[in-house]
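User: Please run a holo structure prediction.
Assistant: Happy to. Please share the sequence and the ligand.
User: Here you go; the ligand is iron/sulfur cluster.
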Amino acid sequence: MRRKTKNFKYGDVGIGSDYPITIQSMTNTDTRDVESTVNQIKDLEKEGCNIVRVAVLDDTAANALKDIKKQISIPIIADIHFDYKLALKSIENNIDGLRINPGNIGSHLKVKEVVKACKERDVPIRIGVNSGSVKKEFVEKYGGVNKDSMVYSAMEHVNILEKLNYDKIIISIKASNVRLTIDSYRKIAKMVDYPLHIGITEAGTPWRGTIKSSIGIGTLLLDGIGDTIRVSLTGDPLDEIRVGRQILRSLDMLEDSVEIISCPTCGRTQIDLIDLAKRAENALENIRKPIKVAIMGCAVNGPGEAKEADIGIAGGIGEGLIFKKGKIIRKVPEDKLLEELINEIEDL
Ligand code: SF4
């Protein structure tokens, strides 16, 4: 069961246990380059990204947010380190969320100013502790970088905001180590009722990073922990969204996407099933329907093994069968299989 949290919004996207789990990514364009950043955000949105984060390194980037915001339709979070003036400028320029650690801003007065601006504009603040940035005093106190030093490091930032009566807080405590990430989130989930943004940080290249993220994010989601997710990959941000969607889809937490079941092939396979499955995956990527599609290698076991699929293909010799809910409905030549399958899906 999903952990109960406070609920609020980034723009018009709800965050917390009353809302669906959302997928985030971060642009890797230079935020000062408005055109490239807007284009990447639009591509991310098309892929299924719900919330986007951008790095704000200087004044020009903070000013660019105004133009970026006008051209996009998903909420945007400004990611700021240390400089409270950049935070104020970003809030002024209509951002929907702020990612900043209040303990790193400097004087209490500066924190107060940022919190005041966030209250006025209804901007939630995400505080984020990564395993690489745990404060030295916590590392020493808790005997290294572990769940305790991670959690209490994050709580220090949370306490600063709470003392200023601010509670639109989202917390992330990511590590590149999967076990440490899971342990840390499990601990903090019992201590607070703020929404949690989850992910494995610096998870690596798409291949390794997908595996690490799926294990880490998947385990937490099955525990009921996690309100927004990010898959951090060393690669194209669009891949982060594809993987994020598939993680949610695999756990039946995403309604609007096609689930593909495909057999591993064996000595009975008489068509080029591996190629067919890849082409089907590409063709179905942007279809937003809650259906299961099976791509199976043979008519002997295929339809039966994939009974729970709404629609599917079972390979024969140079041809294949289209089946629905385990029942064969038509025989089709191999080169027309994908086309026929897509027609059937569109009619569903
Ligand atoms: S569905 Fe048929 S071809 Fe595919 S693995 Fe099973 S038996 Fe082999």
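The longest strand covers residues 327-333.
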